[in-house]
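During the second half of the funding period, the structural biology subgroup turned its attention to how the target accommodates small molecules. The most pressing case was cytidine-5'-monophosphate, which had performed well in the primary screen but for which no bound structure existed. We therefore specified the complex as follows and requested a full 3D prediction, including the ligand pose.
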Amino acid sequence: MEQGLTLEGKRILLIIGGGIAAYKSLDLIRRLRERGAIVRAVLTAAGKQFVTPLSVASLTGNPVHEDLFCLTEEIEMGHIELSRSADLLVVAPATADLLAKAAAGIANDLASTILLATDKRVLMAPAMNVRMWHHPATVRNVAQLREDGLLFVGPSDGEMACGEYGPGRMSEPMEILTSIAAALQPTSQVLAGRRVIVTSGPTHEPIDPVRYIANRSSGRQGHAIAAAAAQAGANVTLVTGPVSIPDPVGVSVVRVETAKEMLAAVKASLPADIFIGAAAVADWGIEDPVAGKIKKERGSGPPVLALVENPDILAEVSRPGEGRPSLVVGFAAETGNLIGHALSKLQRKGCDLIVANDVGPGTGVMGGSKNTVHLISSDQQEAWPLLDKGEVARRLIQRFAGMLGK
Ligand code: C5P
């Protein structure tokens, strides 16, 4: 057994879905128990086609749960308690069907009901045919689940039981075990007692009552940062422009439309220890938004829109003086000369750090679930690998906490 990988007394609820990889889950149970974990298992109807309840019960040393409406099981331990009494839920194999149900919030059997009812972290170990993994529906479901805060291990690349090759193989039990140990680590409260303000999303600048200028920002990165800061113990205010993603958990949300409203909301939320300007604030607004809808009149040609510069929220918050947050972080979304633009932005705005990302065509960053960022300050330049926006957020928060501590 590896050094340090003890799971003594940890309660794992393992949901075994219907896939050929289910046999590996038997080995996973054995390894979990070797390390002192207490394992309860739920076997889906499809899972039962691959491993038997008897082998699962023998290995866990506990009754296997199979049925949402089983009276004896409900009396012994109801599905709500089952979902709450564990320290961690692990779904292995997580089939395309289980991922889809969890992403949509469907609760029509014991496994999916538990996933909807739980208040614990959930680790998914997907396993499916490579084409199913690449199907837009699965890609969408996985992105949604990641955004909802679920954790993933794998799938890995390799030869599949169906004869095809590619990603879709369930991770090996040892790899899942390592992810379980990581997921059980308490999230370190590096920002306990700190106040954090985050801006996120686009702004909408009205032209008339029905039209506006906007941009493609989804708010995903800013929202993930607010969520990560809250998880790290901070008191977080998220000032967000119009977005279609859910509010992060544990954060006070102030909704605004225009850059001017965003500035006012940020000012009202100060003071703070950290300000993170992740919003894609429109640089220009319409000088004189029209009160009534502009009509298309024959012969008069298109209207001329006079633009005015919007207030620069980041520059205002960065201005030296009493009440300036100890750490002010800006973002730079660029389509070229990333570092050069970021360096000049750092100077122009007066912030302490710029998180720069390439949003050029083909990167899929704007609106997507992944991001490649560079950290640029007066004394450092650092390139990070392509990461999930949630992971970027967690790492950024750790970094910001370190910078505050200096
Ligand atoms: O100048 P640019 O828009 O590229 O700068 C990006 C950074 O400045 C981001 O952190 C963004 O949130 C912030 N910003 C702002 N107010 C503006 C424009 C940008 O806070 N009016």
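Two results from this model are relevant to the next phase. The radius of gyration is 25 Å. The mean pLDDT is 90.
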